[in-house]
Design goal:
Helices cover about 35% and strands about 15% of the residues. It has about 375 residues and is α/β, with parallel strands linked by helices. The longest helix has 24 residues.
Length: about 375
């Protein structure tokens, strides 16, 4: 997985510094979802679950990835179902989604809508194939829809890879490593059926699904057009990758990100913090309670990371982003972290540096690589 490709960063799930488990909000779950949490903790696949009347949770496997699965939600309609996210475009994932719908009493042909939280492959990859099988409409936020050609069109991949490589070199990544790290986007492309949206979903839009008062919330940061969906009457938040029970999503600077994605993300966290919901239904791990507490924890986590990076900059006489990244605290030695996860970590460190720069806490001297200094 990469910062541009596939949901929450493996640097979060596998390499990021963590507080003790007992200190993390998001641990409280409903009795009905205890089995889902136990499956995550044991490394097993959770079962297809009827979360509540008219709502199903379907785990769809993700290949070669410690997140293991994406949770697709099926919302019952009078004439079929709408699904939130779809999974990677692999035969295993398609079969799992098809079988999960069957447990709920539906076929792939019964899907009427695919609401995509964002365009990373584990959420968007199968959307086009589902539409081919069912005639469902696909919905995306305009900011993510605008990125589709540059990210997934075969004619644009090499340009994206070149831009990624140039950014990595400016971050101080050694040239051979930059070649390896930037090439991951070619691999990611294999897990997506290119499909433009039928509908653009704006912030605050009512989705118009019969029997559901589902409202879209634009929550940029993890991707420019990330969406959450909230149902006030059912008091649930479908949080995509915006808020998860245990890990935090990648928030990274890359060729398709906004100029200050961490600022966008923190603002979007604040916007959902006090939503009046009983339960959060994320795209990974397991559903949980206490949205406000979990949001507060994630905000504190980023505050701590910003302070650590600021200290690292202060301790060096001009340092590249790559060098700073290697000095940060991770849950395993830097030398043991796989290359594609190093890209995610580097681009996320860059997002924190950009955030600090915009607030006058560090300064950058442009070059190849860019060097970072204390603000004073």
């Amino acid at each position: 997985m990469t910062d541009q490709g596939a949901g929450p960063a493996m640097s979060e799930a596998d390499t990021r510094r963590r507080a003790p488990v007992s200190a993390e909000p998001g641990r409280r779950v409903t009795p009905a979802s205890e089995e889902q949490r136990e499956a995550w903790q044991s490394g097993a696949m959770p079962v297809v679950e009827r979360v509540r009347p008219g709502l199903w949770s379907i785990p769809v496997p993700i290949p070669i990835n410690p997140l293991r699965y994406v949770l697709v939600y099926a919302l019952e309609l009078p004439d079929g179902v709408a699904i939130i996210d779809a999974g990677w475009n692999t035969e295993e994932a398609y079969t799992a989604l098809q079988d999960g719908l069957a447990v709920a009493g539906y076929a792939m042909s019964d899907v009427r809508a695919v609401l995509v939280t964002h365009i990373h492959p584990d959420h968007y990859g199968l959307a086009g194939r589902v539409r081919e099988a069912s005639g469902a409409w696909i919905g995306l936020h305009p900011a993510d829809a605008a990125l589709l050609h540059g990210r997934y069109d075969d004619s644009a991949i090499e340009e994206l890879v070149a831009r990624e490589r140039a950014m990595l070199v400016r971050s101080g990544v050694p040239p051979l490593s930059a070649d390896e790290l930037s090439g991951a986007s070619r691999i990611i492309r294999n897990y997506v059926t290119m499909a433009g949206p039928d509908r653009l979903i704006e912030d605050g839009a009512d989705l118009g699904l019969p029997g559901w008062d589902l409202k879209a919330l634009w929550t940029p940061g993890h991707s420019p057009g990330h969406l959450c969906f909230v149902s006030p009457s059912r008091r649930v938040l479908f949080s995509g990758d915006h808020v998860l029970a245990r890990i935090t999503p990648i928030v990274a600077v890359h060729p398709q990100s906004g100029p200050d994605p961490l600022a966008d993300y923190l603002d979007a966290l604040a916007a959902v913090r006090h939503l009046d919901v009983d339960e959060v239904l994320p795209a990974h791990e397991y559903r949980f309670l206490e949205l406000a507490d979990r949001v507060g924890y994630v905000m504190a986590h980023h505050a701590g990371r910003l302070a650590e990076i600021e200290t690292a900059v202060a301790g060096a006489d001009g340092a590249a982003c790559w060098d700073i990244t290697t000095r940060l605290t991770w849950s395993r030695p830097w030398e043991t972290i796989p290359a594609f996860m190093r890209r995610a970590a580097t681009n996320e460190t860059l997002a924190h540096l950009v955030y600090l720069e915009a607030r006058g806490r560090v300064r950058r001297v442009p070059g190849e690589p860019d060097l970072w200094y204390p603000a004073g």
